[in-house]
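User: Reviewer 2 asked us to show a designed sequence for the structure in our supplementary figure. I'm pasting the structure tokens here. Could you produce the per-position amino acids so we can include them in the response letter?
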């Protein structure tokens, strides 16, 4: 154990990282998976934009993604094992688009001293708001790529 007053040093070069062909292949596979995920999400949203009831869907998709995340998070907090890990991994992959906002807000909440249920509330608000913004971004890109005569700007 470290004695009081002693210093613990860490040098960034002391952690070995091997840059091999396996890491390059893993990076390409992960990048391709993220691209396919984004294309599938865009296809899913754009397919429903023209349908009746789209405004309800705009709010339902973020709510559905939040509803998948809450039970999986609670399960992984109370149980450990392969089933809980697989479920948490699947929900994590589904909520990949919300990950940057969740991490940023949880980091800010940690810096602000949020603990307990407040952290969960911040995470839930981040998930819902981020998914809503993702849907709005896809909608906005659709309008920006549309020909000017199809926008009906009367």
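Assistant: Here is a per-position design you can include in the supplement:
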């Amino acid at each position: 154990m470290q004695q009081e007053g002693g210093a613990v040093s860490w040098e960034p070069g002391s952690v070995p990282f091997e840059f091999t062909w396996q890491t390059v292949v893993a990076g390409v596979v992960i990048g391709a998976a993220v691209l396919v995920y984004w294309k599938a999400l865009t296809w899913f949203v754009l397919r429903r934009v023209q349908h009746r009831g789209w405004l309800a869907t705009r709010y339902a998709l973020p709510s559905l993604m939040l509803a998948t995340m809450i039970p999986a998070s609670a399960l992984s907090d109370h149980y450990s094992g392969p089933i809980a890990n697989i479920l948490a991994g699947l929900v994590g992959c589904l909520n990949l688009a919300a990950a940057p906002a969740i991490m940023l807000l949880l980091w800010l909440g940690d810096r602000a001293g949020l603990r307990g249920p407040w952290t969960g509330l911040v995470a839930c608000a981040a998930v819902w708001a981020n998914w809503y913004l993702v849907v709005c971004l896809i909608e906005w890109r659709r309008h920006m790529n549309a020909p000017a005569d199809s926008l009906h700007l009367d």
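For the response letter, you might also mention the following. Residues 20-148 form one domain. Residues 21-49 form the longest helix (29 residues).
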